[in-house]
Amino acid sequence: MLPLTATLALIASLQVGPAQATGLVWGQVRSESSGAPLRFAVVEIPLSGRDDLRTSTDENGIYILRDVPAGRRVLRATHIDHAPLDVQVSVPSGGRVSLDFALRLRPVQLPVVFARAASIPTTRTDSTPSGIAALGPASVHVLEASPGIAELGLGELTRAIPGYEPIDPSDVLYVRGGQADMKLVLLDGAPVYAPFHLGGLIAALDTDWLGTANLYLGGAPARFDGGLSYIMELESRSARTGRVHTEVGADMLSARGRIEGPLVGDAGFLIAGRAVHGLGAEPFFSDAFPYRYGDAIARFDASVGDGELSLTGFWNEEGIQLDSTSRADGETVWGNRAVSLRYRGHVLGSNALFTLAASSFRTALPIGGIRPLLTSAESSRSRLAADFERMAGPVRIAYGASVDRMTFDYTAAVRGAEEDSVLLRAEGQGDSGGAYIDASFNVLNGLRLRAGIRGDRFALIDDMRFAPRIALTLALGQRAAITVAGGRYHQ
User: Fold this and answer.
1) Are the CB atoms for 331 and 364 separated by under 8 Å?
2) How far apart are CA 353 and CA 342, in angstroms?
3) φ, ψ (nearest 5 deg) of residue 156
4) pLDDT the model gives residue 156
5) Domain for residue 480, yes or no?
């Protein structure tokens, strides 16, 4: 009979057994044709009954496989544009094996791909937020060119009211910028008056939902009408439809939130908003925080046939409590409401973009003096546009038409009085319509010419107004360009 110690030792030897001997394999993977090292090549050893040993080469093409079971093993080296190579090697226990691979070049063969250029982007091509740096120049120009207070000329309107005289020359609200709005800002095709806040407490443009921003200081394409000062085209991005994404943030002065995700089928939605609450600044003010701002956007996208349908709604409102008043009717307020329905697809061999949009801008401005007044104004605009683009050899041709209707409504009443105490009211309406054609092509490498003409008909003018446009752009690398442009614009 074996002693107890010998029995336990025998059982342990039967259960554990000897440790498996291993070795190390290393080397370099190169291209057979050029001899250059191949980065990110995969070197692996298939092992039965367990996971394969696998590694990838570094920037010098070097690979190292550790803990390789001793014995005869098959090493395989693969690279995306080279033919794979299998080599059998004998790995000694506790030893090292050096093995280099020379892979034969074998480019990946792809089937024939037919591409059709479309300068009008589809709704699904911009599903990630743009960086703040890419929108920096546009944001700076917006703040420089926008008036300090968006008041639609209400200060000028009150001069027509009998008996309006300021008590003191200092009792006047000065507004930076011209009396008329000489810019044109389009948000997903909808004209908006002041889509950016002017308080400076948060970013002027919300890059969480903004896809692209194109700024034209001169020589704008013929499809744009108006915009004597500048033209800015803002495009929201489509939602990411892989899964639901949410983001919420807050600080001492503001809060923001965003949710986006899939709907039925391939449809998607994006809802975002932000606001200035000013809670962190209340200890520094004896009264309520004198400034407020909020904006929100909702966008829905869906595929319809061979095209894409998108619906966008936008709202923003900004208010400033003037120092000389403390009542609610002493607040200067302005804001936008806009909605657009757009369809992108192909019509008769052309890329087509159909837009149906409507927007309104409302503002209220308290005026001090012997007779304190509260002036208000509302500007509404509806727009129907059809834009087409196609290639004719090396020339890109764009053409289309649009119809607009604008309405204005101004009122002035004694502040704090009843609604029927209106002292002055003015309103107006105007229609316009136009068509355009525009062509662009590369004159030389890096030199592009664009020329076009637009014709518009205004309701109060008998004859047609034509606006020729031309622009010549020289690209100076990837970060600089020189543009010489000229043209005529009507506002």
Assistant:
1) yes
2) 7
3) -70, -35
4) 55
5) no
Is 73 within a domain?
Answer: yes
187 and 259 both lie in a single domain: yes
Q: What is the pLDDT of residue 63?
A: 95
Quote the pTM value.
0.65
> What is the tally of structural domains in the chain?
2
Does residue 369 or residue 136 have the better pLDDT?
369
Looking at the fold, whether 300 and 393 belong to one and the same domain comes out as: yes
Residue-range definition of the domain harbouring residue 223: 133-437
Neighbours of 373 (CB within 10 A): 22
188 and 143 in a single domain? The answer is: yes
Rounded Cα distance, 403 and 40, in Å = 57
Tokens of 176: 């930076």
Closest alpha carbon to 231 in 239, 242, 240, 222:
222
Kindly write down the DSSP assignment for every residue of 16-40, as one continuous string.
H-PPPPEEEEEEEEEETTT--B-TT
2, part of any domain: no
The confidence score (pLDDT) of residue 128 equals 42
Per-residue confidence (pLDDT) for residue 135, from 0 to 100: 44
| DSSP count for the chain of H helices, then E strands | 3, 25
Question: Do the beta carbons of residue 362 and residue 341 sit within 8 Å?
Answer: no
pLDDT of res. 468: 92
Q: Is residue 453 part of a domain?
A: no
Element (H, E) at 308: strand 307-321
The pLDDT, as a whole number, for residue 139 is 47
Instruction: For 393-444, list the strands marked E by DSSP.
Output: 395-414, 422-444
Extract the tokens encoding 350.
Answer: 């052309």
Contact 209, 299 (CB under 8 A): yes
472 close to 444: Cβ distance less than 8 angstroms? no
pLDDT per position as a tens digit, 155-200: 555 555 555 554 444 444 444 333 445 678 899 999 887 777 766 6
Distance CA 146, CA 204 (A): 11
